[in-house]
Structure formats: structure tokens, C-alpha cells
């Protein structure tokens, strides 16, 4: 029996072409799938953030570093006010810096600023910038010899340092008497050895 001859050149071409297209499409689909961003999992993100260190963490919108800005959150220059005007949202954590180097505001103004934040439902944070206790030195440029602070007896460096400690203790006592809890950071920016006297010799001094 004679069978009709098949033209292999004509049949193999289309078959290989179709197979090539199938493999190409599959490959493109695999590449496309691998390039698509994975859906973020909220629990995984929170778990990752908590793994970055020890202790408790606070997540959310923050307004911080009220330094020479008015500590009254209703004032135009206050960071809480600025964040609210730009976002329409009020942060849940605000910080006021008690700056004993420049003293741009009185202790009463700082305390009332913290009190107002608390009464408005915010978690108040309190920072301190202590003036360099060594006489005749610039707080933001020079290294302080802290050894006299721990010496027995009295000396100017020790007196200046503890006067500031007593001053801040009185402020914290007043806030405590008002029933206002705060997150307190006594030596802010311990890693800033460019501009903070208490970090010039390394943060271990603070």
C-alpha cells in the first residue's frame, strides 16, 4: 500500500513554531509573576519592626522636637499644629524639649504645653537639652570634663550640673502631681557628637 508522502519541512515548521510560542508565553508568565510585588502582610510588617530591637514600640504619626517653637500646641509655630494643618490628622505622640541651653521659654510654659497635650488625648514626650556644666564653654561645640561632677565636695561644674537636674526634677514632679505621665529622654541625641556636649566623648558618658 502506498501512503502519500508527507512534506516534513512544511509540517515540522508550524509545530516547532507553536511549541516555541507556548514556551515563550509560559516563560513570560513566570517572569511576570516573579516581578509582581508580594502583598504586604500587616502582621509580618509589625513583627519585623518589633524585631529591630528590644523593648516596647510605638507606631503612628509623631510630631516632635518642639525646640525653640512655642510649646503651646495651638500656636502657629508648634509642630503639632503644623502637622495637623498639613495632614488634617492630629498625632498621638508629641514631644516638647526643655532647652536649658538657650531657655527660649519658661518652665511654666513648657509644663503647660505638656499638660495641654495630655488633656487633648496625646501621649506627651519630654526631651532635655542640658547646658554644658563646665563654666566658660559652648554647649554645642566643646567637650565637657565630666569627672568633677562625680567628685566629693563642691565645684562649679558639679554645682551647675546638679542645679539643672534639680530644675528638671521639679518640672517632672509638677507634671506627676497633675497626674500627667510622660515619656522622658534626659540626654537627647546621645549619638550626636557633633553638637551635643554630653556626646562629645561618646554616648557612654551620658
Describe this structure as you would to a colleague.
- The protein has a four-stranded parallel beta sheet.
- It has helices at residues 8-35, 42-50, 79-87, 107-119, 156-177, and strands spanning 62-66, 93-99, 123-129, 183-185.
- The protein starts with 7 loop residues before the first helix and ends in a 21-residue tail after the last strand.
- Mean pLDDT is 76; it is low at 1-11 and 28-39.
- It is an alpha/beta fold and 206 residues long.
- It is globular, with a radius of gyration of 32 Å.
Return the string of H and E elements: HHEHEHEHE
Uncertain segments are 1-11, 28-39
State the end-to-end distance.
Answer: 103 Å
Q: In which range does the helix fraction lie?
A: 25-40%
Oligomer: single chain
- The tally of strands reads 4
Number of helices: 5
Mass-distribution shape: globular
Order of strands across the biggest sheet?
Answer: 1-2-3-4
Main sheet overview: 4 strands, parallel
Q: Strand share of the residues?
A: 5-15%
What's the average pLDDT? 76
Structural class determined from secondary elements: alpha/beta
C-alpha-based Rg, rounded: 32 Å
